[in-house]
User: Fold these one by one.
Assistant:
Number 1:
Amino acid sequence: MKRLQDKVAIITGAVNGIGYEAAKTFAREGARVVLADFDQESGETSQAQLAGMGYNTMFCQVDVSSRESVDQMTRNVLDNFGQIDILINNAGITRDAMLRKMTAEQFQQVINVNLTGVFNCTQSVIEQMIAQGKGKIVNTSSVTGVYGNIGQTNYAAAKAGVIGMTKTWAKELGRKGINVNAVVPGFTETNMVANMPAEIIEKMKAQVPLGRLGKPADIANAYLFLSSDESDYISGHVLHVDGAIIM
Ligand code: CAA
Ligand code: NAI
């Protein structure tokens, strides 16, 4: 029996980086995966690749920062698949700048996607999960949200907020059969990190006790565990997948 057999999983930010790796992992484990992403071009390519592997997935273009767009996605998913078992709030952006230079727009853009986006998606699917009597929600935070990072006022605020929402929702939704957990990735090899100055990447890497950056599969495997029945008695947990950079 596959670990997510017959489950319907929405993964936001699913057509690049960690989200795409998670989409492949979840599909391999039997889930019907909704690739929910802003990026139409990569969305169509990723959807075609997964269909070519024989997986039952759908691409849904969505801007998680827009409630209207998110509600449209939820309606689409229910029309196509009839249920929602898993939500992985993985979409995220950076707009790095030192506090002294950060514009109000840079601050707000990151809050809108990385914090309000998580609220929008969760609130949009929650009535369906409550009606089903079971659900799994995994929110993506970051080491930056736990220990801060130079140049990331906006991002650290949003990712710390994600941990607060996770714990609140675990308390509110536990009695409805819904588990809510957060994953805290360390620096992981995706475009998000590739865009950082090379010398800062090397400095970060040197601080990781396990001696390397994360790989998308490291994070996808944590999403999988927290979405499977194996974690049924785990909720409100903040799981670091960071090579022990924070202990
Ligand atoms: N550690 C130590 N010093 C640092 C530093 C760091 N991480 N980052 C910047 N500084 C220092 C610089 O050396 C520089 O020092 P001096 O004034 O003595 O020369 C000073 O701070 C100003 O830095 P910059 O010249 O780089 O300033 P800038 O305005 O041109 O750029 C920045 C600022 C955009 C924040 C740039 O430094 C940057 O991109 N830093 C990387 C930010 C980062 O780590 N982002 C993580 C992205 S990955 C991610 O977000 C995933 C996740 O969840 C972890
Ligand atoms: P990525 O940049 O490779 O992928 C992010 C995806 O989110 C993209 O497909 C993008 O189109 C999508 N997206 C952006 N804005 C969106 C919006 N408004 N609506 C819908 N989709 C949107 O990034 P990566 O590295 O795969 O990051 C995934 C998650 O992991 C993010 O939440 C990120 O903050 C978090 N994270 C990443 C770390 C890293 O080192 N790569 C470390 C810690 C956390």
Number 2:
Amino acid sequence: MGNRTTIIAGNWKLNKTASETRSTILALRNRLVGLSTRAEVVVFPPFVSLETAIDAARGTGVKVGAQNVFWEQSGAYTGEVSTAMLEALGLNFVLLGHSERRAHFGETDATVARRLEAVLHGTLTPIVCVGEVLEERESGTTGEVLARQVEGALRDVAPDHIGRVVMAYEPVWAIGTGKTASPLIANDAHTLIRSSIAAMFGRSAADETAILYGGSVKPENTATLMSESEVDGVLVGGASLDAGSFAEIVRAAG
Ligand code: 13P
């Protein structure tokens, strides 16, 4: 761990109604009472529950983010939401380029770059997700893939905006599989991501960028992952749906 912000993020994906969102956040609040943590704790419910989430999280220290956002501000784009709409709700964070969006919804490095540019024109903190699939890891191309994804996503970021970008390394083979990356694999991948950022924006910008690890994070493996020098937080899927296990992860992160 360096001096970078620690973030413990819960990506709820396609789970929980608005009322389940409220009860989970209230339960999380109860579990976090009295727990001193240096981390920013953020949950990412589906769009329709964001307003409820903001309301339930008020005064708790828990922050709320969206799972995606479009790059245009208004117009004939059925089904989309804009950065200004999310900001108006009082949101703090947005996920970009999650591998599930890449796999199922046609997301590419180029569309991630467009979304990121729109986000950086506003006030949200983007968490840009990258990660290799199993075949890429097994064929030894992880480094190339991560470099391509980082360069592709960050290519239009102005130098004075890089300090607002958070990265997440999510190896696709570790997502929802129970196969967490070993702390060493995670640390090596984070180092590669940091090198790509350094090549684009300089070493000190890279050293200040928080990089989260995601992929089968659980209360039992959080502390060892977080003890790695390049791991600045975790992006949790399944284990964030239960307030008890997510609170345990926050506790384990220190
Ligand atoms: P799991 O924690 O369920 O593996 O999901 C990780 C993830 O995709 C978080 O964005």
